[in-house]
Amino acid sequence: MGQPQQPDQAEAEEPGAPGPDAGAGTVPRAGAVAPPAGSTVGDGPRVGYWPAGLAGGTEKPQLRVGMVGYAFMGAAHSQGWRTAGRVFDLPLTPVLAAVCGRDADAVRAMADRHGWAGTETDWRQLIARDDIDLVDICTPGDSHAEIALAALAAGKHVLCEKPLANTVAEAERMAVAAEEAYAQGRLAMVGFNYRRVPATALGRRMVAEGRLGALRHVRVTYLQDWLVDPEFPLTWRLRKESAGSGALGDLGAHIVDLAQYLAGEPVVGVSALMETFVRERPLPAGVSSGLASSGGTAGRGAVTVDDTALFTGRFASGAVASFEATRFATGRKNALRIELNGERGSLAFDLERLNELAFHDHTEPAAHAGFRRILVTEPDHPYLDAWWPPGHGLGYEHTFVHQARDLVHAVAAGRRPEPSFADGLQVQRVLAAVEESAEKNSVYTPTHTPTAV
Amino acid sequence: MGQPQQPDQAEAEEPGAPGPDAGAGTVPRAGAVAPPAGSTVGDGPRVGYWPAGLAGGTEKPQLRVGMVGYAFMGAAHSQGWRTAGRVFDLPLTPVLAAVCGRDADAVRAMADRHGWAGTETDWRQLIARDDIDLVDICTPGDSHAEIALAALAAGKHVLCEKPLANTVAEAERMAVAAEEAYAQGRLAMVGFNYRRVPATALGRRMVAEGRLGALRHVRVTYLQDWLVDPEFPLTWRLRKESAGSGALGDLGAHIVDLAQYLAGEPVVGVSALMETFVRERPLPAGVSSGLASSGGTAGRGAVTVDDTALFTGRFASGAVASFEATRFATGRKNALRIELNGERGSLAFDLERLNELAFHDHTEPAAHAGFRRILVTEPDHPYLDAWWPPGHGLGYEHTFVHQARDLVHAVAAGRRPEPSFADGLQVQRVLAAVEESAEKNSVYTPTHTPTAV
Amino acid sequence: MGQPQQPDQAEAEEPGAPGPDAGAGTVPRAGAVAPPAGSTVGDGPRVGYWPAGLAGGTEKPQLRVGMVGYAFMGAAHSQGWRTAGRVFDLPLTPVLAAVCGRDADAVRAMADRHGWAGTETDWRQLIARDDIDLVDICTPGDSHAEIALAALAAGKHVLCEKPLANTVAEAERMAVAAEEAYAQGRLAMVGFNYRRVPATALGRRMVAEGRLGALRHVRVTYLQDWLVDPEFPLTWRLRKESAGSGALGDLGAHIVDLAQYLAGEPVVGVSALMETFVRERPLPAGVSSGLASSGGTAGRGAVTVDDTALFTGRFASGAVASFEATRFATGRKNALRIELNGERGSLAFDLERLNELAFHDHTEPAAHAGFRRILVTEPDHPYLDAWWPPGHGLGYEHTFVHQARDLVHAVAAGRRPEPSFADGLQVQRVLAAVEESAEKNSVYTPTHTPTAV
Amino acid sequence: MGQPQQPDQAEAEEPGAPGPDAGAGTVPRAGAVAPPAGSTVGDGPRVGYWPAGLAGGTEKPQLRVGMVGYAFMGAAHSQGWRTAGRVFDLPLTPVLAAVCGRDADAVRAMADRHGWAGTETDWRQLIARDDIDLVDICTPGDSHAEIALAALAAGKHVLCEKPLANTVAEAERMAVAAEEAYAQGRLAMVGFNYRRVPATALGRRMVAEGRLGALRHVRVTYLQDWLVDPEFPLTWRLRKESAGSGALGDLGAHIVDLAQYLAGEPVVGVSALMETFVRERPLPAGVSSGLASSGGTAGRGAVTVDDTALFTGRFASGAVASFEATRFATGRKNALRIELNGERGSLAFDLERLNELAFHDHTEPAAHAGFRRILVTEPDHPYLDAWWPPGHGLGYEHTFVHQARDLVHAVAAGRRPEPSFADGLQVQRVLAAVEESAEKNSVYTPTHTPTAV
């Protein structure tokens, strides 16, 4: 029986493709459950939008999720957990067990809205619960390390939003803890969701296939414009103590990870320039959720993070790169744009048109060559066999559905998920080198090689 | 009852905007429930991703949905019903009560996957159930009329997939029945989901605001390519008895409705040309779900529907139009493209880039004028206040979430939903005029004016 | 010696490639001169921007041009004749011998500006001159037939602007006369310059190579907006007696020719709708040059031509087509857009981005397929070996340079140029069928098969 | 002498706009000639394609041009000089008096092809001629200083290709000499032709009008791919002694000038990274013209210039910038792309689509805002009143026509042309800072403030 939604036997690391038979798992697993025997994917013609022979999801083992934080990312992760098992054929059924936040009324309302069974107001209580298998951390970066370390220590799987931490030291501890936890069968993943856009996952596949040849250039920008107005209030995202950094940690973390992911190699050094254009902003009087605030204002306060970070860099292979993250690019709303140029071909992607990937095949005769626009909506594109017919595109939130899907497969198989905490640490090291370079008059600053991990 | 394409005077009719105070309802309603007092949408600064003061969804009245058909459209509608109440603040909570299909195992599997509480194998049983408030019809067009008429007669609200029916006669009966049912407080809507792309809803708003001035041109294509391969099997979509017509009913229905919706006026006549390029195809041996089939083939059969339909036409105002629907436009996957040119401005939309709307303001000085790309992801764009920050786009399936949202609001308010069955009938009349013109050597053929409705 | 600017020995009919050795000419030629023996092109690496071994242009025979008409087209043709021999290595040197217009002062000023040696105020005088080899007709359509017939009768080569004539009867006489003149060694060409955009010429080459396979669809629009303002004056282009028709003859002629050229086959029938949106306009008081006028106005007059023409049609092979020509598409300035869909691939072109051709290769795996943007600026693209490095684009007027180049080669080789008057007649027949269909309620109207030619 | 990038107060400095009444000239002029009294441009309705009242070009004074160098740039400049007076109404008639090159046969052939009256084989002879008013230097950068200084000393006007020189020291001498020559009525201009694309000139006008507000970001790339093939031969452009630098001087010079021109302010410091990917290439055996070579190869030699240069920088106002110049961006042929983000709006331009300018007006309501594509072909766009109707685009070579036009106006008016040698020097200082930073581990390196000039 063809079961089109189920993933195939392809290499376990490829996004959109799950792990091999769980029986192949080589590490001890606590609570992980094998997928249905004989589970296969993608073979045979596509007969419909559900698996005709499926015995019913109720009998599957559950993966009980407890989420900390309930704002923008909390909403996005909720969509991911709720939808993943409806669209993909998963070995475990995600259960929205409990959501945690300090304001009891607000977290209750959020739980009702998004379908979380319970609530907590103290993340330590959440972690202490027996009926939680996985802790999903959606708080600002300053609390990531503490929560993640405690959750891993408590025997939970952990999904942690990016950036992994606000400092390299924290990130290093987290990566060590993740490695130790893995030996106990517990998994840790960092939420670089843009790896899970079908178009970027396809791009990674094409690079890995050698379609770009020797890499020469990576250029990537992440342009937004929501801070252009000098009267935009001083939310937590604009304070170093909560956010760690500004555009750098928020947007720069994404593009460093995505660039390294697509290139398949690390950034080894950078030269950086950072700037804060508007150095004082109105203090919000009421609730602040990061991207917006309610209520009036109460005086003005200093912006203590960067408005923009620009840096050039080198990859391990000798390819050169340029990066730019900003919240002041008027008219650009979410313009994460990346281009890779190799000796044999090039790729280009723009998050504002996330269903498309541009590819230039330089091995073709010049008379017929050119960047082609691949509409990444075909059944044999990553993640797409479970979705809609060609041309019927996906949106931003689907990256969280795919993230949940891939993590569930990893848990079931006892396999290290990607991006790992070590990947998150590597990004953190690059961000630290950026800050160091910016402080040292832009001098070229090597990224410290990971040693502990 | 006038011309269904013209927007109602009430602000409430705007897609993405909620209904007025339910107390304003002027027709009897059975089972409809007022939204929470004070419920408003989109006013005030945005404080987060859920309403802080909401008392909790569990106390809301329910809207219990029974769905007939469970293939492509069934999956899409499931996503819509499951998600609408999680994202939008709805006056009623949609409940996925039961799904109906002839193959008991398959429908059971689908119900498990998508979260439908129960199953039925006979739609008459579904309709007979007391615990169903709304029947959602996702079957091929040949069964729409029978099911919808029975469901309305049984006192259910009805959502019927497009095209409304396979013939004008059926559609007329359905429109009459819908009108009668409305007097009893029961609502009927047809599933032209492309009205609920935020970009098209914004386009409608801009036309209604007069930004285009006197309309001169509408040109619209719906281009797909999945039939180019002559070995693609003869599924139900290629047989007149099940599908009614080919590209015309499937794609042409969408573009006729969308053109009339955006223009705000009806097509009054057409001149058409239809063609079947591949007249014989392999018979599928196994299950056929419309866009694909499993199993082998068993000989060849005649394609009895059109592969393409092209027509020119006139709108009531004197604007001229061109339409093209095809499944043979190699490389075009879902290219529903529409452009409207008016004396004061123009709009253009492409479903393959559904988060964008192009607008040319002809009242600006020529030196600075040009088509602008509006990224339709701002909080004050239709439906967007409930979704993500600017630049974080939506996908195809969100149209079904919005459709569910709007229908729930209409039911709660006892207000006629749009597009109504009368709107569906108007589309059917245009399609019939197209077929008549094509049979009569393309002679210009007026669209019969609606009389009964 | 590599002489990169010189054309190669490729098939004579391909645009951008000149004829074979003139010695191969099989018809009598009067005044035609063989190109330099051993002329070859494009072999060897490109060494520079002039032929190192060229003996000097002064010794080449001349082609003395007399031009009738001196407005928009006159200026464009002047650029073509003046530049062609500077960029391309031509067998004959074009000489701007004389320009003719009724207003002696104005034509003198134009001659001085554009470098025409002499002037005439009566085209009969121009034709009577011994020192004119080729008559270039740039007047409105109502005088084409008379001038062209007289010029051919006087033993001149003729280049006639499009549309060939204002009626089929005139065009037929012209095609017959051209055929008779050819027997006397005199050539006639019609000025469909859009065949000579490198991108369209490349498109034709790709179609001829079979890259599209069986043709299914052609859709083409030519959208302008300069008549949207109802106060735009009633110039000659808006009067049937001078222009023959409106958007149809002006824009429609171009797209019918380009569609037939790219498809490589004729349109065999059409169903049409024509409309005049603004039926009365101010009469210009002063000089009118077609696209603009000076001076004030003197009352209002009736517009006697179409503002727009839309038609569907069939090609000889069974492919279907849609056409739209309009001067009311607000925001579209020169949007000649054509797309061809075949079983194996598709092409798309937009005159507003004339250095690009989009190509979809449907024989590639779906996972990597998509429309590619070919930047048509490579040395092995048509006409490009004589111009700039890759990526350095050409403009509108270059089509006239290429037209002059190709005609000079044809004259030197005594070879029939394309598009011929027979090609112009075929376009005229399609336009006549369009007008006939529009008058007959859009009924499908076959294009009369050429018989005399 | 201030900051050369800042626009002159005089309206006359706007590209595409002619000079004021020559009588307003305040400096001594030798040989400069007043334009015809009453000569104006662009005022009044457009009546045609030539000035009806023009007395005839033969009576105009001449500007006799002698050109040194005759390869790619020589061909482009020839087109410019030959065409400018045919299209624009110029106060002086450019005469292609003589072209100079070392190979007598080759330069003779080039002169014949492009219409130069005479030839020279020694540039000193050219400069010594009485019948030359202006020396146009199209040689590689290593000879610019010597020729320009000699020409100015000989009392000639000078147009010098970019980069102005290969070193800052040379450029400083040239700028001083230009200033001294100006006191004698002789003018000097540097050939940054991309200022004269209508779209960039429009962009400059919009920035000057304040449409961008406070500038925050400039990002600019110039991407080509002609060196990707490691077997591409070692032409003069790849050797430091002839070219000075690689991508930096060739492409980087263009983008630094264009960025400063559009921003209206200088770059004050940079942090740079340079790389040579392919360090050895085949030596060309025969003639080498920079972009190509003929003949075979003779061993391999070291590439002594950069393949790519990336740098970040700061503008005087505090805006930050990123620059990238490369010849290794596979699939990018001539992708000079620049974007400026200001507090009130943004501009974007791509040389591969040079008839377009994208503009985002951030003062509009977010619901209707977005980047608009201005098709820069309107009569009130810079330079466009002399060309074709809207939508009929120009090409690369037109920048040289416009350059010739503007220089002729400047000469006639005795007015300093832009970009001046001081502008060229400023670019040179930035390039030098880039090289210095790249050598010093990317440390931020201020651009030395012009002092001598």
From TrEMBL, chains A, B, C, D:
<dbReference type="InterPro" id="IPR050463">
    <property type="entry name" value="Gfo/Idh/MocA_oxidrdct_glycsds"/>
</dbReference>
<dbReference type="Pfam" id="PF01408">
    <property type="entry name" value="GFO_IDH_MocA"/>
</dbReference>
<feature type="domain" description="Gfo/Idh/MocA-like oxidoreductase N-terminal">
    <location>
        <begin position="63"/>
        <end position="181"/>
    </location>
</feature>
<dbReference type="InterPro" id="IPR036291">
    <property type="entry name" value="NAD(P)-bd_dom_sf"/>
</dbReference>
<keyword id="KW-0560">Oxidoreductase</keyword>
<dbReference type="InterPro" id="IPR055170">
    <property type="entry name" value="GFO_IDH_MocA-like_dom"/>
</dbReference>
<feature type="region of interest" description="Disordered">
    <location>
        <begin position="1"/>
        <end position="45"/>
    </location>
</feature>
<dbReference type="InterPro" id="IPR000683">
    <property type="entry name" value="Gfo/Idh/MocA-like_OxRdtase_N"/>
</dbReference>
<feature type="domain" description="GFO/IDH/MocA-like oxidoreductase">
    <location>
        <begin position="204"/>
        <end position="347"/>
    </location>
</feature>
<dbReference type="Pfam" id="PF22725">
    <property type="entry name" value="GFO_IDH_MocA_C3"/>
</dbReference>
<feature type="compositionally biased region" description="Low complexity">
    <location>
        <begin position="1"/>
        <end position="38"/>
    </location>
</feature>
<protein>
    <submittedName>
        <fullName>Gfo/Idh/MocA family oxidoreductase</fullName>
    </submittedName>
</protein>
